[in-house]
Structures are given as structure tokens and as C-alpha cells.
Amino acid sequence: MSKSSGNPRTPTLTEALIPVGALVVFLAGSVLNLNELPTLVVITPLLSALASVPLVGGVLYESIPVQIPLAAATVVAAIMAGRLGANWREVQQGMVNGIMHSLGSILILLAVGMLIGVWIASGVVPMLITWGLQLMSPSYFLVAACLICAVVSLVTGSSWTTAGTVGVALIGVAQGLGVSLPMAAGAIVSGAYFGDKMSPLSETTNLAPGVVGVDLFNHIRHMIFTTGPSWVIALVLYYIIGIRQSDTGIDSNILDVFITGIESSTHMSILLLLPPLLVLGLVMMRIPALPALVAGILSGGLAAIGLQGMGLAETLVVAYGGFVADTGSVAVDDLLTRGGMSSMYGTIGIVLCAMTFGGVMERSGMLARLAEAILQFARNRGGLVASTLATSIGINLVAADQYLSIVVPGRMYRPAYIKMGLDPKNLSRCMEDGGTITSPLIPWNSCGAYMFATLGVFPLAYLPFAFLNLINPLISLIYGYTGWTMTPLESNESESSEIENIV
């Protein structure tokens, strides 16, 4: 690697593809024992290389943890950056910059780990699970889960907070009802990302119009045309699947075991609603996620001490190592034993390795070169929309960060949309349709890794059931080629002058 050069040249497309190809090969090679693919998972085996994870139909994927192939691919990217003329300091700075982007996510991951452990120990999660088991049935659970998560995420603006609080309880309810956990996780993710995408409190919803110079509420209104139909279709599909779930039935004795086991080991009180209400209230007041989660941890800890009779030291141990249930029922213990800061360390390793790889790719110019290559296919309106969606999804895959999947296409494609006579709000919508919505479907993306750590279901297991996340990009693509809801650029002089100034 060059030691002194500080002026790296622009990579060729082949050079930019080499680290990506290496990542694909390393991920594929990390699978040690792959049984027959379930019919519902229509995706290449290389993406399942994360850990020994049960998928749909009980299929078990045994693989080397994804951190190793990501680290190996980073080495290849660094070598390529050196061949392009970058010195080690520049490569290292790219790694540091990538990690810096993820520090906020890492802090939230640690906080959520503590929150889950403390809320289970305090009785918050067990009480919500018990209520869910008493009120819900398999026939409408998926629809209810999607609706609940959509509302919570809409008012909080955070899919992560939704999954880490309401989502955890709903997964427990699904397990007690005998609902497929991948299906339940898919409904939770769909609802959480509907709210995240449409809420004016969401970071990505503010970032996308900000990058391209569009009014926030114009951006949200324009997204209704793609996100609204996607959500309705998703709810219909969850209803159909739910009806089939109800046909299988569930022994009421099994529910009694769960409810009795939880109630016998937990002191129930209406006061246990205060910690989740506090977190939701703070987020709705636009308090940042991390302080809101810390408030949830502290209030949950007080509930554990005051209502469950735990000592301070015991509560702190749970916050770090997670809660270990001992109810006398194996099923209930499996349901409640989880959480803790330490449970997030593996996920944090994935985020760090993925962001390091993405940081080198961005710093060396290889990421931009890949995006430019996609832009060559944007010869008409449909091709431009397809290129935008592909770029956002591709950056989610390569850079493993949903914010980059919004920022990079926004910088690249804005002039192309204006040149083609399309309002920039079409671009901001496409960026979210391709970037925000697909991030939780990728195991090594920070969002996919978070959902896996929080819900306990591997992203490729719930991917076939995250209907909103799958349908939304397709509807956006259809609109691009048909012209439906594609708003033309205003032709008056004042707007044209403003656009030129922004460009």
C-alpha cells in the first residue's frame, strides 16, 4: 500500500466490484452446513451466513459468524484502496468515519439490551405478554401486531424504539399463541417501518427531503401514494395468513401454562405501565431516543426493586447480563430469559465490521463508482426510478447503513431528476422506498442486526413476511414506469431559479 500518496485516482468499475465480489464469496464460503432451503426463503444461501439460526420450517443454518467475512472483505477493500493510491492514514480514516456513523446506533443497542432485561425483571414485559395472550388469538394476531407497531412508530418516529418495547412483548405473545415467530417478526417490522417512514418525527423522514431540498410535509404526503397501498396490501395478506393460523388451533392448556407460569413468578400491577408510557411520552415530545431509553431503564429498575422485591445489585446484574427466568416451566423460562447489555455485543460486532467495510468503500471512491455505473441505466423516467431504488438497496447491502442509502442517491440523482423534468420530491420518495424500507431485511445492515438482536428472529426468516418492506419498492418501481403520481417539475421562473441555486 502506498505510504505517501494522498491523491487516489478514480476507481474503474471492475476495481470497485472486487471488494463486493470478495464479500459475496466470503459470505458464501462461511456457510459450513446448509440444509435444504425452505420454499418460502427465495434468496441465495450466502446471505444466511450470520450464526447458527433456525429459519422457516425448522431449517438450521450453521455458519461462521458474519463478522469474519465482513472483516476479510474490509482487508480486500483496503488493499484495493492502496492500489488506487490511498495511503494507510486515508484508509484508516475511512474506517474511523464509518464507525463514527454507527456510534449512535451502538449506544442505542446497549441501552435497548439493558431495557429488555430490566423490563422483563420488573414485570413490564411479562404483564404485557399475559394481557396479549388473554386478549389476542392467532387469527388476528398478525394484523393487530402490524397495526399496533404502526401506530406506536408513527407517534414516536422510531422503528427501533417500537421494536425494542412493543415488539418484544408481541414476540412473547406470538410464542405463547403458537404463531410462527418469523411471521410475527415480519408483521412487527412492517408496522414499525410504516410509522418510521411516515412520521414527521423520524430521522430518515427528515433526512430524505433535507438532502434534496423538499418540504418535509410535501415529502410525507407524496409517500402516501406508495406506502399507503403497500400497507393496505400487507394488512390483507396478514389477515389471510392469520385465518390459516387459526385453522391449526392451539391447545388452551398451553396458554394456561404460559399465563399461570408468568403470573406465579411476577407481581402484576397497573403501575408497570408507567415505564413504557414514560418512554413513549418522551419520544413523542421529541426527546432523543437514548435519553428516553435511559429513562425507561431507570423507571424499570425502580419497578423491579419496588414491585418485584429485587435488590439494587441484582437489578444491575440483570441490566448487564440479562434476566434468567426460573418459573418451573421450560416454555415460560425460554420466553422470559433474555436481554441485558451483553446480549448486544455480537450485534455490535456486526455493525462495527459492516461500517468499517462501508467506510473504506466510501473513502476510496469505490462506492460512488458503483452508484455512477447504475446511473448509466437511467435513460428514461422508469430507468431513473429503478436506478435510484437499486442504488439505495445496493448501499444498504454494501455500506450497511440506511443513512448512506439516502444521502448518496440524493446527492447523485437530484440533477438527473431536474433534467428529466421531475420534482425532487419524487427522488426523496424513491430514496425512502428503496433505502429506509429495505434496511431491516439485510442481516449485516445496522437495522437488520438490531431487529435480529431485539426480536430474536433472523432477518432472512422474517424477510418473506415483511410484506410492507417487500411491496413498497415494487409499487414505487411501477409508478416510475407508468408515471402514476410522478409529479412534474414546476416551470415558473422563481422555482427554477431556486433549484439552480440549490444545485
Number of separate helices = 23
Major sheet, described briefly?
3 strands, antiparallel
Proportion of residues in β-strands = under 5%
* Strand neighbour order, sheet with most strands: 1-3-2
Instruction: Note poorly predicted spans.
Output: 32-62, 492-503
Question: Structural class of the helices, strands and pairings?
Answer: mainly alpha
Separation of the first and last Cα atoms: 37 Å
Q: How many strand elements?
A: 3
Helix and strand run: HEEEHHHHHHHHHHHHHHHHHHHHHH
Q: Helix fraction? A: over 70%
Shape: globular
Rg of Cα set = 23 Å
The average pLDDT value, as a whole number, equals 82
Summarize the structure.
The protein is an all-alpha fold.
Description:
It is a single chain. The protein is mostly helical. It has a domain at 103-344. Helix content is 71%, strand content 2%. A three-stranded antiparallel beta sheet has the order 1-3-2. Helix 3 (88-122) packs parallel to helix 12 (289-308). The protein starts with 12 loop residues before the first helix and ends with a helix.
